[in-house]
Amino acid sequence: MSAAPEGQLTWAVHFSLASTFFDPAETPGIITPFLVLYALHDALVKPMPGKAQAGSLAESWTVSPDGLVYEFVLQPGVKFHNGDAFTADDVKFSFERYKGAAATPLRARVASVDVVDPLRIRFRLKAPWPDFMTFFGTPAELRLNGR
User: Fold this and answer.
1) Is residue 4 helix, strand or coil?
2) CA 16, CA 4: separation in Å to the nearest integer?
3) What are phi and psi of 58, to 5 degrees?
4) What is the DSSP string of 54-100?
5) Which pTM was predicted?
6) For 1-39, what is each residue's pLDDT tens digit?
7) Distance from first CA to last CA of the chain, Å, rounded?
């Protein structure tokens, strides 16, 4: 059991916050908005100390031998701030809605995004793309948001 939040956090930034900084689908291709995005949204995988790509909303993932299929198993029990369960449908929704800096290379290379079951999502690529995971595990990543 975790403790209830205590105290107050004061956040000061040295720039004006643009409305696009709050929406993962609209994020421009600069680092500044990620200060806000990392605080409000999460990703399937992300860099963590000692690991270039660690699971976050994804519990695990596999890559097919031909490099065309990436399948993510999602963490069970994750909820959005409003109490809705996080599912593979949310991953697909976020991918389809995404219009940020990485949208063009992602759409050009991804053939389909398939919901296998509520906790499993499959990305099928048009051709092998070794940088696919880089787009999920770096600041270029697709951040997830609710329906």
Assistant:
1) coil
2) 31
3) -90, 130
4) EESSEEEEEE-TTS-EEEEEEPTT-B-TTSPBP-HHHHHHHHHH--S
5) 0.76
6) 677 778 888 877 777 777 676 666 666 666 676 666 666
7) 28
